[in-house]
Write a structure and sequence with these properties.
This protein is elongated. A two-stranded antiparallel ribbon has the order 1-2. The protein has helices spanning 7-10, 36-53, 68-76; strands spanning 12-16, 23-27. The chain has three helices and two strands.
Length: 81
Amino acid sequence: MMNCGDKDVLGYSLYACKKCGTRHYVAHTCKSRFCNSCGKIATDNWIANAQKQFVNVPHRHIVFSPPSELWLLFRRQPRIA
């Protein structure tokens, strides 16, 4: 993780143009989820995949919390809760 993107430690891929001879070096990454760079990419990919599974409908999430005076009643008769 400390050497993420260091071509001397993790290696690199070389891309070269056959016509003009231009070379481009791309350093390999550590692919650790704890790395600031690689972990962010993994998190973004996970979020994108998770969002594909959600149904695209408007909704509201409401949490109902009964008053403490009614808790004893709900404990005695859980079917009414």
